[in-house]
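Hey there, shall we discuss this one?
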Amino acid sequence: MEFTLKLSAPVTEKTGVVIVAQSVSELSPSARALDTASDGQLVRALKTAGFEGKPGQSQLLPALPGIMADAVLVVGTGDLKDLDSRGLQRAALTATKALASGPKKAVSYLAELPITNTSLSDRLTAITRASGEAAYRFDTFKSKKNGNKGLNHLTLAVDDKSQVAAGKKAVAWGEALASGINTARTLGNLPPNVCHPSYMADQAKTLGKRNDKMLHVEVLGESDMKKLGMGSFLAVSNGSDQEGKLIVMDYKGGKKNAAPVVLVGKGITFDTGGISLKPGAGMDEMKFDMCGAASVMGVMSALVESGLPINVVGVMACAENMPSGGATRPGDIVTTMSGQTVEILNTDAEGRLVLCDALTYVARFKPAVVIDIATLTGACVVALGKVVSGLFSPSDELANALLDAGQQSGDRAWRMPVWQDYQDMLESPFADIANIGNAPNAGAITAACFLARFTKEYNWAHLDIAGTAWHSGAQKGATGRPVPLLLQYLKNRAS
């Protein structure tokens, strides 16, 4: 999808389709202008079609008199008083999907919609992002490609020359957002026989070559990790023929000596559970267990594309969790890079084992903030479903900044506790810590508390995206979350 921005009036616009809106009670300003120009034909056509202006509705009206465009697409917004950025994104998504069969070009006037606490730039970014997401296709492994037979060029309209410069920047940021989200989706959707730790390393290197002045990439193999004492990480990767990789992407967009934000993504490219083998039903979805790492790659890709003025280190802890003669057993005790010992009671609690060594490693960057992102626990799905990601942090300031970014981006999170009371549930009689809690509850919290033991040197937050990283069923596929939340947080810090 290509995006442009220009001054444009809906009545005189000659592009194939113009996109306007109707709420449950009124037309948008551009829709009213079109209705006037067509001598009321727009409203009459909508009434004939039974169009009610509800969210998710759309109606294509061809060849209206008095209008130069070939057709008008009207999308529903629901009640205007309830319209927020998420609703605007839904309207843009609806429009793009409605034009999936054509034409190729359209002009959108949705940015004029009144949304409280948003600027025109915010709305232009939201529309661009949502349209880019809606245009995404993953047909790499289909013998007959779906292709994009419909909309591939969207122009966003403004009505004042003074809005053009800022508008173009907003559209460019929306493009970077969509690109980053779709990068994460593609990595998540790839099959595990293709997307393994070495593949992830190659993708990072390719990204580094796109802008080697701003992005430096380093890949640590298992021999490097052994020298560093990453016994916990290796306890996971040892069971696989695929070598584990710790992938470090250092983006220098900010001031030379400014402390970076560090993002650490769980990258279990396939999770069988190891010796603690998962049930066979639904195991195919365990290719999505690397979506934390995929989101880090998506963020770094968007940073390279946008040139956001901030320093960010993206780390992907990539391994396969497989059962084999060399696999870790329940009851094994390993020594982490921090020197703490871990009794592994369940090999299916492997994400925290690769993350704890990665979290120890990143202290060398003297970070301003460290955020880890992981499809960590089924317990988080039980608690929060697939609506919001779980957020854990001992810092009120950091937690609130991430929650605000989630609200702004529509990629929301919900804060959960990491209190000392839960730490006691991780005690082991044989090692410093067990890798699972000693009770059949609070699993998402005890997992976060496990990670907290390795983050004492810096300001830290953990995002559990087990519920939000992918869809199951007929709509199975990676979502790209929480790329929008993370990029909004970084943009806010860079402002």
In short: The CA atoms of residues 184 and 297 lie 7 Å apart. The radius of gyration is 24 Å.
